[in-house]
Design brief:
Elements lengths: L1 E7 L7 H17 L2 E5 L21 H13 L10 H10 L2 E9 L8 E8 L5 E6 L21 E4 L2 E5 L8 H8 L5 E6 L4 H14 L2 E6 L1 E3 L10 H4 L6 E10 L5 E7 L3 E7 L3 H4 L32
Parallel strand pairs: 1-2, 2-3, 7-8, 8-9
Antiparallel strand pairs: 1-13, 3-4, 4-5, 6-7, 9-11, 10-11, 11-12
Helix pairs in contact: 1-3
Length: 311
């Protein structure tokens, strides 16, 4: 059995350096609780752009422009080493870290932001970088489209880890891509919450016969900085919780073993056994003996997609 930690904590909103420092502090707390795998929410560094669900896309151009500039400036250029201190924390404490972040592309135009999740190994090396394949609805106004290069399941010290972000988990073929690589610990950093979302996580645990770890965004009005433009209009003072979190850990087969953690901040701990995700497939293995490759098959393009190629 291994201890995992799901960090349901608000970032230092739109402040990259402070949020990374907070993440490192939470890693230390999780390690004290015995965690070997530590998971952070979607876009934890440096905050999910929740305003997109409250402003009309394309409306109030100046306000959207200002907010996007803040998001861009607080995002992470992974290739420039801006995540190195978190990687060093993983190495120091010998833990695996899964963290969502706003990633600023380090090549070509250097102006596109991606909704990204990274898996950092216990040696401090980034083992995988997955960019959200399809930003949802107004998210397309702030995030670029990812590709299949990060659609991987990674061997870690705690088991085989695969990740999909938020509503990517509603994409059957994306899920199947992880099932087909033998995912044991299916990690779903998300902004979604509520009974419907938790039901979806339970379905995935039943369908994939894997552990499902959903790490939700906890965000209150107090977390929004005082200088946030038009804060009182977008987030009225009558509102306390902007997003409730609902982090949850589900065993293969669908049983909830920890959480949901609703309208609170902190760390959700759980005990898991990665091997049980293998044993659970005796009766149902959708990418193995329960598949029909003579009728259905999935082809995945893992080539990185670039608009400019220099030869």
């Amino acid at each position: 059995m291994e201890t995992i930690a799901v960090v349901q904590e608000s970032p230092a909103f739109l402040d990259r350096e402070k949020t990374i420092a907070l993440a490192i502090a939470m890693v230390k707390k999780a390690v004290k609780g015995g965690a070997r795998l530590i998971v952070f929410p979607e876009a934890f560094i440096s905050g999910y752009p929740a305003w997109i669900w409250r402003l009309r896309p394309g409306g109030d151009w100046s306000l959207n422009e200002e907010l996007h500039t803040r998001l861009l400036n607080s995002s992470v250029n992974v290739d420039a080493g801006e995540l190195d201190s978190l990687c060093e924390a993983a190495k120091t404490h010998q833990v695996t870290i899964v963290c969502g972040l706003n990633e600023r592309a380090g090549d070509l135009s250097q102006a596109t932001v991606y909704n990204t999740v990274v898996v950092i190994g216990d040696d401090g090396i980034i083992l995988n970088r997955h960019r959200k394949l399809m930003p949802t609805n107004p998210e397309r106004m702030v995030w670029g489209f990812g590709d299949g290069s990060g659609l991987k399941v990674i061997d870690t010290a705690v088991g085989k880890v695969g990740t999909l972000l938020c509503w990517e988990n509603y994409m059957p073929l994306a899920r199947y891509a992880l099932y087909g690589q033998g995912v044991q610990l299916y990690v779903a950093p998300t902004y979604d919450c509520g009974e419907g979302w938790i039901g979806t996580m339970q379905h995935i645990a039943r369908e994939g016969r894997c552990w499902v770890i959903s790490c939700g965004v906890a965000l209150t009005r107090e977390d929004i900085p005082a200088d946030f433009p038009e804060k009182d209009t977008i987030y009225p003072d009558s509102e306390t919780w902007i997003n409730a979190g609902d982090s949850v850990v589900i065993a293969p087969g669908g049983e909830i073993v920890a959480g949901p953690m609703r309208e609170e901040k902190g760390i959700l701990f759980a005990q898991i056994d990665a091997q049980s995700a293998v044993n659970a497939k005796r009766a149902l293995d959708v990418a193995g003996h329960y598949s029909r490759p003579d009728i259905f098959n999935l082809s995945i393009n893992r080539e990185p997609q670039k608009p400019v190629v220099f030869k």
